[in-house]
Amino acid sequence: MQMYEIVRVEELAPKIKLFEVFAPQIARKAKPGQFIIVIIGEKGERVPLTIAGYDVERGTITFVFNEVGKTTKQLGMMKVGECIWNITGPLGNPSEIKYFGKVLCVAGGVMIAPMILQVKALREAGNTVVTVMGARIKELLFLREEMKALSHRLYVATDDGSEGYKGLDFLKDVLANERFDRCIAMGPVAMLQTVCELTRPHKIPTVVTLMPIMVDGMGMCGVCRVSVGGQMKFACVDGPEFDGHLVNYEELIKRQRMFLPEERLSALLWELGGCKCGRK
Amino acid sequence: MAGSESKPKVKKKAVPMPKQPPEVRRHNFNEVALGYTEEQALEEANRCLQCPKPQCVKGCPVEIDIPAFIKLLREGKYEEGIRKIKEKNSLPAICGRVCPQEEQCQKMCVLGKVGDPVSIGRLERFLADWERARGFTIPEKAPPTGKRVAVIGAGPAGLTVAADLAKLGHEVVIFEALHLPGGVLVYGIPEFRLPKSIVQAEVDYIKKLGVEFKLGYLIGRTYTVPELLKDEGFDAVFIGTGAGLPQFLGVPGENLGGIYSANEFLIRVNLMKSYDFPDYDTPIRIGKRVAVIGGGNVAMDAARSALRLGAEQVFIVYRRSREEMPARKEEIENAEEEGVIFKLLTNPTRFIGDEKGWVKQMECIRMELGPPDESGRRRPVPVKGSEFLMDVDTVIIAIGRTPNPIIQRTTEGLAVTKWGTIVADENGRTSLEGVYAGGDIVTGEATVISAMGAGKRAARAIHEYLMSKK
Asked: What is the pLDDT of residues A222-238, one digit of tens each?
């Protein structure tokens, strides 16, 4: 059976890790905007993660995750040379990358990592790219130098104001003074919603990446259904990118919390079990 | 062995299948039907009249020589018996369990005119289980042909094609999008109807034939069909990607928490083994009052799974009457015995949620049957003003599945119908040279055995194609 060897691990910020994994068949087909499904073992769940990089020659893909649930905590304990049980991908539709003009990219949390791919591709397509990267606190900001080097201009924001702007309110002024042809937002749902409310009055087409709960990630189960413009869409096969001004965020937030008690229980039991990796 | 030579007296009653009692089985996921003992199998086999012109064979989609295997069984020649079945069917332990025999071989059995038909499926299962218990013998394979075939989808159609082509000496690679092989056999049909260890054993048998499985490869994304033929060096491709997309009702409130597609519910329970959460990582939430919408086998599977997960009351809500239910009679009876409550001539019109966005009620309307529609069944018509509310905290929507579209979208020149199925002739030939298809992806949602029948025919056609090619 094919195994997916971890070739590089980087701790980008506390509890935020980057993995580079050998998966040549995915590396050769991956495009910005696509995701993978990771399963750590026979009893594992299927976890969707956005692709943050790929290298056809090395045959590797890169992804970044936050150690929040049982699976990501277990993943976080894995080391270079160890193997992930199964990775499926690339899944979802690639991003639309072409010349738009001036593009505002807003990334929050772990999604800063895949945003690097977007910014790179948008630059290569000739766009002027202004990037905003945000996190809850300054300690959770990462890949800042890379992002700065790739963007024409970079803004930094934190929820508590410990670094850069406090929140995204500053964008009101930016948007009032500058014309953007497109906005791309990747991050927590609350952030996506905020960005869309900011760009809506200026009628800037805004593309958001949605990562709701998924099981198979290829259109079979329908748990990732979202309402977009009043229509039912599956984030895994119709997305993961959608017109952010048409997404029903209230419903999405409720649907993301559907299994919260179970997720907490699972993580808690695992921690009480002493973080043993001895999974059968 | 007794009774094989002397002319047997016709016994009208079939030997009943031993089963877990309903009050026990509704609390566990173990297999419901326990299988015949050797004595029971011999007794049932002896009911067969060994007709000179057997009708049963005509009812079998893969044309198993039924009287021949039954004769071997009752002579105690189990090895020869199972080999006789396997000449035509690589997955007998599965077919013996999930085939709708009452609509196929057993429907044609002449004994059915005077009493119960011979329980052909149960006898098939007996031989298959006997073989699995003592270990498979691998049949002789033809010498390698040097031809390579890519099979897309490790469900009933794909597994059949792969087994047949491997036996003929071709190199076969199965690409399966999920992390386990089996398709609907692992993600759809529950453990209590088809234990997953049986599917695994059949898959192991196919592996021993030399077939390679690539799991987690979604063709259309990881590779496209043209890439398999041009870049990856395959001489032919078989598409058996099935009908795996859920359908929803399209009524208000369908995105509330607690509302699952049958696919989601069954994938969680069967493939991800949520019934063993938190030992397995994938959770499932089941409430006290569960409504399953639909009247097919999938609806019965979902309802019976819900009971086993601890629901207090489980309702089947179906818009037509019992006669029109597409589920197997046996499964309807099993569900009823276990305590599933049938709300017939009833259709949901909207779902009402609580403040957290969880479903708490379902508004339904009563239906009556009008004149027959194009399917020949009487069309259900809503009774005006008959809306009423049902308290529910879990809803499972089991109103059918549609074909997986990704290969059709990524394969230029592949002819597709307006329903999204792939156009293929009876031998699986599509509009593209070297590309074959069969099973639900061609017919729309149907049975395991019809997919296997299509796989058989396609394997024959692919073999001819490969051998005629230079």
From this structure: 999 999 999 999 999 99
Rg (CA), chain A: 18
Number of helical (H) and strand (E) elements in chain B, helices listed first: 17, 16
Residue whose token pair is 């701790």: A11
Which neighbouring-strand residues pair with A182?
A103
Nearest to B255 among A37, A225, A237 (CB): A225
Cα A49 to Cα B89: distance, rounded to the nearest angstrom: 40
The structure tokens 């490969």 sit at: B466
**B89 CA: distance to closest CA in chain A (Å):** 27
Residue B246 sits at the chain A interface (C-beta within 8 Å)? yes
Tens of pLDDT along B88-147? Answer: 888 899 999 999 899 899 999 999 999 999 999 999 999 999 999 988 878 788 999 999
CB neighbourhood size of B350 (10 A): 16
Contact B364, B351 (CB under 8 A): no
Predicted ipTM of the assembly? 0.92
CA-nearest residue of chain B to A34? B221
Contacts of B357 in chain A (CB under 8 A): 251, 254-255
Q: Please determine, for residue A273, whether its predicted confidence score (pLDDT) is greater than 90.
A: no
Alpha helices in B267-358 (DSSP H): 297-308, 329-338
User: Which of B133, B105, B103, B116 shows the shortest CA–CA distance to B37?
Assistant: B133
- Judge whether A165 is closer than 8 Å to chain B, CB to CB: no
Q: Are A64 and A18 in contact (CB under 8 A)?
A: yes
Residue in A closest to B258 by C-alpha: A258
Output the pLDDT for position B12: 87
- Choose the closest CB to A220 out of B245, B257, B260: B245
Instruction: Write the Ramachandran bin of A62: left for phi over 0, alpha for psi from -120 to 50, otherwise beta.
Output: beta
Q: Do B278 and A71 touch (CB under 8 A)?
A: no
Which pair of tokens denotes residue A1?
A: 């059976």
Taking CA atoms, B63 is separated from A252, B68, B155, B314, in Å, by: 51, 12, 20, 39
Q: Residue B293's closest CA among B364, B359, B244, B354? A: B364
Q: Is A162 on the interface with B (CB under 8 A)?
A: no
Can you state the percent helix, strand and coil of chain A, rounding each to 5? 30, 30, 35
CB contact under 8 A, B405 and A219: yes
Residue B7 pLDDT grade (very low, low, confident, very high; cuts 50, 70, 90):
low
Q: Give the integer Cα–Cα distance in Å for A21 and A79.
A: 11
Task: Point out the residue among A90, A254, A263 whose CB comes nearest to the CB of B357.
Answer: A254
Whether B263 and A89 lie within 8 Å, measured CB to CB: no
* Residues of A (87-146) whose Cβ lies below 8 Å from B: 87-91
What's the Cα-to-Cα distance from A172 to each of A10, A116, A136, A209, A249, rounded to whole Å? 35, 24, 20, 22, 21
Please determine, for residue B10, whether its predicted confidence score (pLDDT) is greater than 80.
no
